[in-house]
Amino acid sequence: MTKVTIRALKNGPYEVRGETSLIDRRGGKYQGQKDPLYLCRCGKSKNRPYCDGSHIKAGFQAEESASVPAPKSPLSR
User: Fold this and answer.
1) Counts for the chain of helices (H) and strands (E), in that order
2) What's the whole-model pTM score?
3) In 3D, which of 58, 15, 68, 20 has the Cα closest to residue 37?
4) Coil, helix or strand for 56?
5) Which residues make Cβ contacts (< 8 Å) with residue 38, sequence separation at least 6?
6) What is the C-alpha to C-alpha distance for residues 48 and 18, in angstroms, rounded to an integer?
7) DSSP E strands, 1-77
8) Considering only CA atoms, which of 42, 20, 43 is closest in space to residue 32?
9) How does pLDDT run across 57-69, given as a tens digit for each residue?
């Protein structure tokens, strides 16, 4: 299995490195994926789920820290 790394960039998108497939809610695969992927987390991108740099104009701020415990996944039973 290939290692995948997801990094939350300060005041920016998620950077996803490694062999990945981005799948929509219906199971369709997004085309033209490259490594790394930059995924929007500000909600302002006009190219969602990908980042288009809109976080800069929107003044998006986020600086997560690994010292915060990860919540349980809503998908786990």
Assistant:
1) 1, 3
2) 0.79
3) 15
4) helix
5) 12, 13, 14, 15, 16, 50, 51
6) 20
7) 5-8, 14-17, 37-39
8) 20
9) 999 999 888 887 7
